[in-house]
Amino acid sequence: MWTCAASVIVYNIYTMSFIRRIKRQGHVYLAEVENRWVNGRCVQRHVRYVGREADGKTLLAASLSEVEVDQVKLYGPLLVLNHLAKEISLPEQLGSYSQEILSLVYAHCLDYRSLNHMPGWFERTDLNFLLGLEGLTEKRLLGALDSLEALDAETWQRRLFEGVCRQYRLRPSGVIYDVTNTYLYGRHCPLAKPGHDKEAVQGRPLIQIGLGVTQQEGIPLFHKVFDGNVHDARTLQDLVTLFGRYQLPPGLFIYDRGIKSERNLQDIKHLHWETLCGVPLNEHLKKFWRPWANPQQLMQLSHRQRVGRTVFYTLLRPYRLDGVSGKLALCLNERHQRDARESRRDEVSHAQKLLAQGRSIKPGLDRFFDSRGQLLRSKLAQAEEFDGYSCIFCTRSLAQDKMLSLYFDKDLVEKAFHSLKGITQLRPVRHWLAERVRAHVFLCYLAYLLLSLLQYRLRKTDFTAESALSELGTMYKVYLRDSKHRFQLSRTVTLTRKQELILKAIDKSLLNS
After folding, report:
1. Which of 49, 54, 131, 184 allows an S-S link to 99, with CB 3.0 to 4.6 Å?
2. Which of the 8 DSSP states describes residue 266?
3. How far is 5 from 19, CA to CA, in rounded Å?
4. Tell me: the pLDDT tens digits for 305-337?
């Protein structure tokens, strides 16, 4: 007798028969039966005895010697991702290619390499069972990508986020916005343009991606793809209009200094949201802060604020920025000040030696020397004056420590970009049609959404979304074949303690899957 401690699916792979549960004298027996039409009536014919159920287990009437392993399929991580997708009704919103799109989204969360690798990866998974998808071809996957372009992306992701808020009972009180770029293979995509590469690599064709996430949970609200040469501040101008349609209660909009502009400040104010943003230290602001920027005066205990592992010395003053009233904070990071100063002095010292030898020096360092190669100490002191200083502006009345922690602790969106570029395999983009580039980024956005929901479910555990998926990677579904009676059986590999904890944190019902 072959015993299975997990749920077992039994079916005959050669006939249209099925398994019937028969109760007799308090016992449950399993029998293979088939329906046949005889003289105009449906008659059920007994084919053979299969086994019985006892103590919640299925006992099959097959010798262990008659059972052989047919296939081993990746199951655990896909079970979790599919559960999260179904919770927010994602399959119903993706149209006729929903199964293919979801298979791509799950692959981006786990092991995505390229479209032409997808059919092989699909065969190693249990997605045909989870998604009801038989077979997968590159042609169908390209059709799925093209179908995404037909969606009204702005309306679609707003409705999706509203559904997430209902399901998870979220009430976002803050939004963090940032911009990143990634590079493309080839130079034929009309979106790809030379721009400021955030990884400081020259010559790569880029696209820009703007992303907004909730300030507390890091769950994405919206994204948009821009040409590679669009300025960061301009991306927010486009997305503020989209954000206004979300009709969220007023909150705090947080973004970096490269995104700040007068238009963005005014637009966010008109939405009745408050702004917390970085501000570039231009000459006007340096003049404003110069009376208080002496480190000896600023570096007092009363001005000291710790944010995580970083110590700042700060000063807060009322200020009107681009016609918007708020508070301006001057922040000194002594470690950054020292590092920046010593790095520059190293370069200047090296340049002095090169000039003494009659050799050329690094571009930009010539401003520290006169025509005879003598060091202009006043120029060096001028360059060092605001080393280590940064400036942030807030329209909401916040305590100084709260203001700093909200701005400098905004690594949720940075982690989001890390996930997009790393786990979800955003870069490099291998498509050259603009529509497919946008669709590729959209897939990565959906993959990050599922990862962020998984992280939210795991918030009371020590697991991250990435470590949980890795831990579930050994949770397989094994397909066994009864060679004598031509039956196929399936069972899930026994869970480890850690896997049980993960599934329980997500949804207890998954323990019975």
Report:
1. 131
2. H
3. 18
4. 998 889 999 999 999 999 999 999 999 999 999
Reference 194, options 204, 185, 186; nearest CA is: 204
- Around 300, how many Cα atoms within 13 Å sit in the side-chain half-sphere? 8
Cα distance between residue 376 and residue 352, in whole Å:
11
Q: How far apart are CA 308 and CA 354, in angstroms?
A: 41
Kindly report the backbone phi and psi dihedral angles of residue 364, in degrees, each rounded to the nearest multiple of 5, phi listed first. Answer: 100, -20
- In terms of DSSP bridges, do strands 41-54 and 57-60 run parallel, antiparallel, or are they unpaired? antiparallel
On the question of a cis peptide bond just before residue 318, with omega within 30 degrees of 0, the verdict is no
The candidate with the shortest Cα–Cα distance to 446, out of 203, 69, 153, is 153
In DSSP terms, which residues pair with 32 in a beta bridge? 19, 48
Dist. CA 99–CA 136, nearest whole Å: 10
* CB-CB contact of 322 with 260 (8 Å): no
Is residue 440 a contact partner of residue 145, using CB atoms and an 8 Å limit?
yes
Q: Are 59 and 53 in contact (CB under 8 A)?
A: yes
CA 213 to chain centre: 10
Helix and strand totals (H; E) in the chain? 18, 18
Interatomic CA distance for residues 386 and 208, integer angstroms: 30
What pLDDT was estimated at residue 192? 58
Rg of the chain on CA atoms, in Å? 30
φ/ψ of 226, rounded to 5, equals -125, 160
State whether the Cα torsion 99-102-108-114 is positive or negative: positive
Q: What is the pLDDT of residue 201?
A: 57
Beta-sheet pairing, 18-24 with 310-321: unpaired
Distance CA 88, CA 156 (A): 13
Distance CA 28, CA 12 (A): 20
Cβ–Cβ < 8 Å for 328, 319: yes
CA–CA distance, 399 with 402 (Å, rounded to integer): 5
Amino acid at 419: S
Kindly report, as residue ranges, where domains of CATH 3.90.350.10 are found in the chain.
153-333+388-432
Q: What is the mean pLDDT of residues 268-292?
A: 94
Please give the CATH number for the structural domain made up of 153-333+388-432: 3.90.350.10
Residue 310 tokens read as 């970083």
Residue type for position 104: L
Instruction: Give yes or no for residue 278 having a pLDDT over 90.
Output: yes
pLDDT at 441: 86
Residue among 92, 215, 105, 223 at smallest CA distance from 154 = 223
What residues are paired with 35 via a beta bridge?
44
* pLDDT grade for 428, boundaries at 50, 70 and 90: very low
204's CB contacts (< 8 A; 6+ apart) are 183, 184, 197
Q: Which two tokens stand for residue 426?
A: 């955003």
- Taking a C-beta distance cutoff of 8 angstroms, is the pair 452, 415 a contact? no
pTM for the whole structure: 0.78
